[in-house]
Design a protein that fits this description.
This is WGR domain-containing protein. Helix content is about 20%, strand content about 45%. With about 90 residues, it is of the alpha+beta class. It has a single domain, classed as WGR domain (q64v53_bacfr protein fold, Single Sheet). The longest helix is centred in the C-terminal third of the chain and has 17 residues.
């Protein structure tokens, strides 16, 4: 069972390079109780691509979630909306 919800949506925009990308992740349980990390990414306004990773331990999913978050922040992705950016 997932202890707490994990959801992320970030965007990277640069009008001078015609760059408008999104990246979304969430950790949710599957029907068998395993933790699943689902990633979606692509150009803003499209459905993009989807990849799902399944883990027996929630901590393994959280570790990958946090590692991918660090990678995206280094590449310039930022949270949008009411979420405070860091």
């Amino acid at each position: 069972m997932i202890a707490q919800p994990y959801h992320l949506y970030v965007e990277r925009k640069d009008a001078s390079k015609n760059l408008a990308r999104f990246y979304a992740m969430s950790i949710e349980p599957n029907l068998f109780g395993e933790a699943c990390l689902t990633r979606r990414w692509g150009r803003i306004g499209t459905s993009g691509q989807v990849k799902t990773h399944q883990f027996e331990k929630e901590q393994d999913a959280v570790d990958l979630f946090l590692d991918l978050l660090r990678q995206k922040r280094r590449r310039g992705y930022r949270a949008i909306g009411s979420v405070a950016s860091q």
